[in-house]
Design brief:
Blueprint lengths: L1 H25 L17 H30 L16 E6 L5 E7 L4 E4 L3 E4 L6 E5 L4 E3 L98 H4 L4 E5 L5 E5 L11 H5 L1
Antiparallel strand pairs: 1-2, 2-3, 4-5, 5-6, 7-8
Amino acid sequence: MDRSTNLDIEELKMTREQYILATQQNNLPRAENAQLYPVGIYGWRKRCLYFFVLLLLVTMIVNLAMTIWILKVMNFTVDSPLVLQSDRNVTVNARNHMGQLTGQLTVGADAVEAQCKRFEVRASEDGRVLFSADEDGITIGAEKLKVTGTEGAVFGHSVETPHIRAEPSQDLRLESPTRSLIMEAPRGVQVSAAAGDFKAACRKELHLQSTEGEIFLNADTIRLGNLPTGSSSSSSPGPSHSRQTVHELCVCPNGKLYLSPAGAGSTCQSSSNICLWS
């Protein structure tokens, strides 16, 4: 009995203490004019933020669509070349920092025009100049210049070159169809055929002239064909004259050459009637 009574008394004490503590907490003074501030974006600010985010998203979509459209229209691809097309012409301009035009390339229906101080074409491998043009002249740096037109190349003035050579197994021909062909050199002109013949042919007269030197013919055999043969006015043609195989080379006072039948002595005087006809 005593033990159970003591337990009931202790429980009553604990219940009383809890009630007192709860009553004291409810009676604590509260701060006056207490205000609660909401945290975040509300009202018209929130609506404006959503509007700007939506506008940015729409702008990005339109920009992406325009970029794809431009790439599609201009044929911009990774593996294909750049193609610029126009109904009239395509013009590319280059300007300096002051906005002045320094170069222009125009591709038209009739011509391709380039306006610049110097125009160059370079090799893709080593970058050497293949073709260049400026006010001073035109330079061709290629190893070989080949003209395949049927009429060849036409030059209005002189052409300076140290060497003219035909292609292998091809003939080299210098021709003037309607006028004269002149070769001049202050220190001499040399024409040689190392493995063939040298021929000079003309319709009228062939002149070999040396103003101060001499004309030198050096060969094992020198032949002068179709020379006229003179005959003496007193001699009559006969079997012995027709079988004449040895002749004497004679020269007229004007330099004309003719043949005279050879005899024991010179027969040029007796057959000098050729000189009367020249």
